[in-house]
Amino acid sequence: MTSFSLSGTPLLSRTVVDRAEELRSDVEALRAGWAEARLLRVDHRGQVPVADTELVLGDATDLGPDPTPGAVFLGVRDGRHVWAVRVLAQTGAVADLRRVGDRLGDADADLMVSAVALLNWHDHAGFSAVDGSPTEPTISGWSRISTATGHEEFPRTDPAIICLVHDGADRVLLARQPVWPERRFSVLAGFVEAGESLESCVAREIREEVGVDVREVHYLGSQPWPFPRSLMLGFAATADPDQPLDFRDGEIGEARWFERDEVRAALEVGDWASPGDAPLLLPGSISIARGMLEGWVAGI
């Protein structure tokens, strides 16, 4: 077997909320919708109010009678506008995406991912990358403009590849970073460099990290990863398990080829947070890596 698919839509890729792009510049429509709008508060740790498996949304009018500068418009859900805002502190139960993302419903997950990604960008985009002047948010938080020249800048996303390397049969190459606990492994990943295609990035990153040459690179799917602003682009590739491993760039502390049955058993045990002395611990369902491994094990 040389090909497979993701086991399902990555949990952070569930885009179901109407982003209503046509409303972002419609001042009157946004003002009219503000009275009934919902508000998601996000602190600097990416935490939001939660109750069990649902987001706790407040009333936008708590911020004032009109749309507030600094708030970002996320779209329309159940006929009501939804905004997000950065706050210094929260009260009550809160959680971040890593803790609660796999338990949220589709719409809640969609709203939270967008809110965290946008607000993270705003936190680091206060000055223009072109002329260095202060910038101000515009288009309801979906861009910023230079106060000196009017130059417009848009939310930045950093593309990164994540690749499941297998031998075309029943072995997969997994690795762990030096700072990870023993037994905690995942697939390989790295950022795309300037002037580089995604396929070239896959080949370069795998070679740099473990010294292995890959072939038959094919795309599986993608997932936003707003920690702080990445987009994970999933690939699969084949390699020769007899080629010696060489940890060239210092980013990998250990890498090994695992049998399909070993990976299947590890998936059944749980994930990185699972207790016990399992010989192999794999990423949780919040990561696209999990869906890649599940798809490879099942051969789907």
From TrEMBL:
<dbReference type="Pfam" id="PF00293">
    <property type="entry name" value="NUDIX"/>
</dbReference>
<dbReference type="InterPro" id="IPR015375">
    <property type="entry name" value="NADH_PPase-like_N"/>
</dbReference>
<feature type="domain" description="Nudix hydrolase">
    <location>
        <begin position="155"/>
        <end position="280"/>
    </location>
</feature>
<keyword id="KW-0460">Magnesium</keyword>
<keyword id="KW-0378">Hydrolase</keyword>
<keyword id="KW-0520">NAD</keyword>
<protein>
    <recommendedName>
        <fullName>NAD(+) diphosphatase</fullName>
        <ecNumber>3.6.1.22</ecNumber>
    </recommendedName>
</protein>
<dbReference type="InterPro" id="IPR015797">
    <property type="entry name" value="NUDIX_hydrolase-like_dom_sf"/>
</dbReference>
<keyword id="KW-0479">Metal-binding</keyword>
<dbReference type="InterPro" id="IPR050241">
    <property type="entry name" value="NAD-cap_RNA_hydrolase_NudC"/>
</dbReference>
<dbReference type="InterPro" id="IPR020084">
    <property type="entry name" value="NUDIX_hydrolase_CS"/>
</dbReference>
<dbReference type="InterPro" id="IPR049734">
    <property type="entry name" value="NudC-like_C"/>
</dbReference>
<dbReference type="InterPro" id="IPR000086">
    <property type="entry name" value="NUDIX_hydrolase_dom"/>
</dbReference>
<comment type="similarity">
    <text>Belongs to the Nudix hydrolase family. NudC subfamily.</text>
</comment>
<dbReference type="GO" id="GO:0016787">
    <property type="term" value="F:hydrolase activity"/>
</dbReference>
<dbReference type="Pfam" id="PF09296">
    <property type="entry name" value="NUDIX-like"/>
</dbReference>
